[in-house]
């Protein structure tokens, strides 16, 4: 196997790069030759406060290892601010080649207790923020006829999760956004893929530990470091992944998954058309074999991570 620097000469923007998975991706991209824009506004897990310190710490780590990086403390959740993130890459390094949409916050709550603010704040950062940054970068990708997007999504959206309706909806929206970009921008050699990561970071540190089962789950997750997700992100942003677009991957420790995407499971038809009663008597029994009971990610991955 080759051991070359996959992002030599590239310029990458990584949002939410002040901590956790975003920091791990930014550091590894720099180690592979990329000049990196570290975007982070330094807020708490729920979106309060603000500080440049997390971004500065990531930048310092990259520079200490001999890499090049600059910071942006602009918010992804505002379209004009998001344009400044992309402009930061142009101002500092003259171009932009890759965007990793990773920034996020959590406002977990069981659905019937979730407020409108809980919903809007999470959707604004994850889904709207990803669109704003991707849209700003897309204008340059189109002109240069190259570019790569990596969207950090979640099993909460792909599979299901308890108490995360806002987060799950936003993450599944990001998955659809990525696929749409892959379709729309293929003609310009622009690629877009998703990674559903598993790692112990701020974004999962709020998982409850009220029961022995929850405690055991958290203890296992704490063994999976954010760095495990970085190699796939580097690969997908590099030219070696020129043939990969519109896909949804997952990473859990040393495992890499390829997720199925929505397709037809079963079909029934009646040449005379359906009535509510014939649907109940014929259509639903015929379709029921294709039903899937809603589950959480814990029910889909019953084995220990490798």
Automatic annotation (TrEMBL):
Family named by the database record: Belongs to the short-chain dehydrogenases/reductases (SDR) family.
Protein name, entry field: NAD(P)-dependent dehydrogenase (Short-subunit alcohol dehydrogenase family)
Domain of life of the organism in this record?
A: Bacteria
Protein's organism: Hephaestia caeni
Ketoreductase domain sequence ranges: 10-203
Concerning InterPro entries, the annotation shows: KR_dom, NAD(P)-bd_dom_sf, Peroxisomal_Beta-Oxidation, Sc_DH/Rdtase_CS, SDR_fam
The UniProt entry, under Pfam families, shows: adh_short
From the UniProt record, list the coiled-coil ranges: none
